Amino acid sequence: MEAKRKVFSGVQPTGNMHIGNYLGAFRNWVKLQDEYDTIYCVVDLHALTQPIEPDVLHAQRLDAAKVLLAVGIDPRKSLFYLQSQVPQHAELSWILGTLTPTGVLNRMTSYKDKVARGIPANVGLYAYPVLMAADILLHRCDLVPVGDDQRQHLEMTRDLAERFNNRYGEVFPLPDALIPPTSARVMSLAEPTAKMSKSDPNPRSRILITDSPDDIRKKIKSAVTDSDPDVRYDWEEKPGISNLLEIMADCTGRTIDDLVAEYGSGGYGRFKEAAAEAVVAELAPVRTRFKELDDAEVARLMQKGALDARTQAEGYQQEVRKAVGLNAV
Ligand code: TYM
């Protein structure tokens, strides 16, 4: 039998996990579990690249794990763990860093954006995409389900895999990004020309995966739209409405055309109410499961995941060490 193709993806435990993360990434992660060999990771080493208090990081990574379990990541189907508990990630990152021209990192838009927002420009933040490449290549993954904002990082990962293979022999498969056709870039509710983001200081800009139904309704009601009352899918003229249409389509399984046919001329109030109810219905079961999860049990699951991941990663890492001349003496 042909081996299943491998999927890897990760999320930073930086709090505020939102519907963009959910529709752009997590929901697809869950679906892929039945067809692929899936590996999902809470990438806590990445979260250290921006200032974060130790107790906050500690709490948020367990919270991130709980959100993913509540969404439907199933540790019986997927390898699921915390990145820092598998030291091979950092080791491979160092080795790949030695093949990464600084010119390539200078072109990374996410680094430039973060520094422009006032985040201290440390070496970890700069080398962030190298660690991300290591995450993906460590387990020899083929497919990486992510939102649109990770595209450039994925291109760099492929490039690094090729550089490594050319220099040391064929070790890494070249991974492909798996970007959903809709909701790959869910926009801010407060400023619909900017991406919805965990770090936006305005809490009304995003719907959290664990928001209460009332909070979801209030946030969608106050979402920024334009003054012309037509409900139309038009990113140029109507980014706020187009964003809500995509969110609603993805939460209901209906097409955007269908939604426009039903709500097109009924005014924004009616459309926003229906969009809010669609999001509430989609997220309510996730919120219920989240509240039911037991912290100690989740911690135990994550330890078990890390143990399995270390065993798998060590096998692969020996091949890398051997390729570069760092094998056991
Ligand atoms: P992170 O933690 O910012 O986001 C997790 C996932 O959510 C997607 N996403 C979005 N999708 C649609 N609309 C949005 N507004 C939106 N915001 C975020 C992201 O694309 C991502 O898929 N660098 C990664 C974490 C990472 C990783 C990896 C991912 C580290 N190593 C290896 C894949 C493979 C990040 O910061 O994602």
Describe this structure in words.
- A three-stranded parallel beta sheet has the order 1-2-3. It has a two-stranded parallel sheet with strand order 4-5.
- The chain has 329 residues and is mainly alpha-helical.
- Helix 11 packs across helix 13.
- The protein contains 14 helices and five strands.
- It has helices at residues 19-32, 44-47, 54-71, 88-97, 102-106, 109-116, 123-126, 128-138, 151-168, 213-221, 239-252, 256-263, 268-292, 295-324; strands spanning 6-11, 37-42, 78-82, 143-145, 176-178.
- It is globular.
- Tryptophanyl-5'AMP is lined by residues 8-12, 20-21, 24-25, 43, 46, 132, 135-136, 144, 146-147, 149-150, 183-186, 195-196.
Shape: globular
Instruction: Give the names of the bound compounds.
Output: tryptophanyl-5'AMP
Strand fraction band?
A: 5-15%
Note the gap between the termini. Answer: 37 Å
* Overall mean pLDDT: 97
Q: Biggest sheet, strands in spatial order?
A: 1-2-3
Please state the oligomeric state of the protein chains shown: single chain
Low-pLDDT windows of residues: none
How many helical elements? 14
Number of strands: 5
Q: Calculate Rg over CA atoms.
A: 21 Å
Biggest sheet features: 3 strands, parallel
Secondary-structure-based class equals: mainly alpha
Order of helices and strands: EHEHHEHHHHHEHEHHHHH
Task: State the helicity in percent bands.
Answer: 40-55%
